[in-house]
Amino acid sequence: MYPFLKDCEVLTALGSGEFFANNSILRFVKNLSQKQFPKLKVNITTNAQLVTKYRLDELENLHGMLNTFHVSIDAAKKETYEKLRIGAKWEILCKSMDILAEMKAAGTIDSIHASFVVQAENYRQMPTFIELTKQWNVDTVEFRRLTNWGTYDNDEFKKIDVHSPAHPCYSDVQSIVSNINNTEMDIHITENLLQDIKNKNKL
Questions:
Q1: Which residue, 4, 147, 155, 197, shows the most beta carbons closer than 10 Å to its own?
Q2: Cis peptide upstream of residue 14 (ω within 30 degrees of 0)
Q3: Is residue 91 part of a domain?
Q4: What is the rounded average pLDDT of the residues 122-137?
């Protein structure tokens, strides 16, 4: 079964879309086993709104193979989170992150990665976000610059893209980013967010 995976060491599911909402990818990974693919590690990308103990129990076949849960969050406060992620609930996120933290503590998954897309509504929460993720035993925090994939018109994007030198909050963002340190966690700041800032954070 799945001979094309015989030499694969890392499988990331899903590069786009929500892993737990995709029945095709769920069926696919439920047919994997460590016995068949002893070298294979699986990364799961999710917004954590559908992470439950029941759904994770259905992936019991992946125990020993789960490498990293990549969770996109983008906020450190309920009001901001629910404004940026329409339809998502902060309480569900927190409960899901607690579940993932328990799984990591139990050795079921190897690591947790949390991402945060920086924009006008949330950039002041970057330091708070780091502290919050420590509570969930997150290994890596990644801050990304906002990209317009056709979601916004040009005027709206200019208002929220705080890392544009033309934005009035640009200097504030630069100051926050440059002061983020990497002493207790693995902090990643994408190259297009760093621009000309010199810091010691791991990229």
A1: 197
A2: yes
A3: yes
A4: 94
> 66 lies in a domain?
yes
- Residues whose CB is less than 8 angstroms from the CB of residue 178 and which lie 6 or more positions away in sequence, other chains included: 197, 198, 199
For 25, the token pair is 């990818």
In a domain, 158, yes or no: no
**What is the tally of structural domains in the chain?**
1
pTM: 0.87
Query: What single string gives the DSSP state of each residue in 18-37?
Result: -GGG-HHHHHHHTT--TTT-
pLDDT band at 2 (very low <50, low <70, confident <90, very high): confident
In this structure, is residue 189 part of a structural domain?
Answer: no
Phi, psi angles (nearest 5°) of residue 45 = -105, 130
* Exposure on the CB side of residue 35, measured as CA atoms within 13 A: 3
Cβ burial, residue 81 (10 Å; 0-12/13-18/19+)? buried
Distance CA 34, CA 68 (A): 16
Residue 65: domain span: 3-148
Give the CATH number for residue 18. Answer: 3.20.20.70
Query: In Å, what is the CA distance from 5 to each residue of 65, 86, 112, 154?
Result: 13, 36, 24, 43
Confidence of residue 186 (pLDDT cuts 50, 70, 90): confident
Alpha carbon distance 37, 191 (integer Å): 35
Q: Which 3 state secondary structure label does DSSP give 176?
A: helix
